[in-house]
Amino acid sequence: xxxxxxxxxxxxxxxxxxxxxxxxxxxxxxxxxxxxxxxxxxxxxxxxxxxxxxxxxxxxxxxxxxxxxxxxxxxxxxxxxxxxxxxxxxxxxxxxxxxxxxxxxxxxxxxxxxxxxxxxxxxxxxxxxxxxxxxxxxxxxxxxxxxxxxxxxxxxxxxxxxxxxxxxxxxxxxxxxxxxxxxxxxxxxxxxxxxxxxxxxxxxxxxxxxxxxxxxxxxxxxxxxxxxxxxxxxxxxxxxxxxxxxxxxxxxxxxxxxxxxxxxxxxxxxxxxxxxxxxxxxxxx
Length: 285
Ligand code: SF4
What we know:
Elements: H1 3-16, H2 29-38, H3 44-57, H4 61-72, H5 82-100, H6 108-112, H7 119-128, H8 139-148, H9 156-166, H10 169-185, E1 223-224, H11 253-258, E2 262-263, H12 268-277
Antiparallel strand pairs: 1-2
Helix pairs in contact: 1-10, 2-7, 4-5, 8-9, 8-10
């Protein structure tokens, strides 16, 4: 992908969602670390369901450690692999107390030495808490990076290295969230919502979903938030410019922030298809 196209993609994602952030509920760096650690192989929704009950009771390393493994398990039952995660959580809290004075460490080495914390979790913490330009690659980002041509790679690490090497500096900080949310809500695994995608004309995926197949998409979106930026006349899709004075249709800033480029709306046409596909796990690309 050429640099102008790459920059245009990020410019457009930024215009649609200027302040992207995680959907994991948290108020402190430690809460974020716990939430991200718990989110491995499970949904943000189930993690939020657990932390909504856990954090009012214990949201510091000392309080978590005091609960002990059996004490935290009841809070984590909505989270996949909760037995293992309960042990990791207590080990993580104890290690932060013993080795880091009760504070979340600010180095990759120290973060990855914590129980249950791998490269992806460490990258998210370094990026969100310590402002480092890391791009954590999860399944959504891996898929979007490969499909669009932004950062083709056969492994998450290869995609991460390519993204870090090629993403324009001004977009590095938020690239993770833009790509993750785009993959979660638009460029979904099985049938991406290409006809509704705000970067469709820039994306290099050869097998885009045609408009007539949009109702087969399991993407929870049907419209985008905000007008398409006009600053790319060469790259803009012909005839796709928004009307003058067009207003974003998101009902709140929160909705616009939490869903990178589109808003979730119900679509009765998809319900039957969605039920049929619910058990199916699509290949990434
Ligand atoms: S056009 Fe389709 S494949 Fe490309 S990024 Fe958008 S949803 Fe994904």
